[in-house]
Structure prediction request, 331 residues.
Amino acid sequence: MYIPEFITINQFQLQLWTVFVFIAFVLYLFVVWFEGRKDGFDIEKLFDTAFLGALSAYVFSKILFELSLRSAVVKDIDVEIGSLSVLGAVLGLGFCLIVLSRTWRWSVYRLLDVFSLSVSAFLSLSILSSFLIYKNINGLYASVLFLGQYLILTRFRNSKLKSGFVFSYSIVISVFIVSLLFEEYRSLIFILLLITMSLVNLIFRERKDMTGRPPISQNLLNSLKNVLLSKRKQLKKEQRILDQIDPANDTDRDIDNADPIDEAVLEDTSKEIVDLRRTSADNMQQLVRKALARMRIGNYGICEVCGKPIEEARLRIYPEATTCTEHMGKE
Ligand SMILES: [Zn+2]
Prediction:
């Protein structure tokens, strides 16, 4: 049932908890992808964010651990596991997410939500090692609770919970789980610090709601959605037609041997036209898909450049718009 602390392969000793941490890291990446996809994040940038976030968490964690050796204040606040500072890890990841969300004009609340879910999944799996290797039964409870936290929050994200709430709830639940099960990692100042962070996040989130734009009326949104859906249908039809007339797909072109040179020129030209039409259909379809995704997550109709509402008249003419008239062509 239990797993040994280490295995030896050719005189090389492998600590098995590192294997857990590695698999947990893979799970973290998977959840970032799985959750981020739902919000329409650019997947490539999202993976960059995941790696940079982990790196930044590690570096901050090491720095704070070194500081805690020199400063009693830091030592009092922080919780440490081995030679890593938990406070440092939280600050490092948070700092990286805030900076990158500013750089790429992403919603910081959504990004924090995605990453708090992936960290819950990471914790669930890595803490399991304390049960399976070190026979600590609380490790099993914590693992199950973190898994439950992930499953419940991911279930209600984007439906019942507004963006930003998953992050705040995650912090509160995690603090509860850890202080309930791991007495040695209980630090009152650290708990207060985390709870404060979660409240500050909610306050800023609520203020944003109040200062935000008046939402597009539900009627207009529905009619724009219908326009987009029928556009999508139309584009799919266009792609099917292009597949049929693409000379590359023409199976009997070798059999028909009229004039080989004319034939080749004709084929090249029509191939070019088909390719152009296909590229433009692909681009249009991507824009339509993006607009529909933005409707699903509730940031439709906001300029990607300045964050202000896009003019209603512009949306009526061009429902795929992701920028206001002023920032047209700058996306
Ligand atoms: Zn703008």
Q: What stands out?
A: Residues 260-297 form the longest helix (38 residues). The domain at 218-317 is CATH 1.20.120 (Four Helix Bundle (Hemerythrin (Met), subunit A)). The chain has two domains: 6-211, 218-317. The longest strand covers residues 6-9.
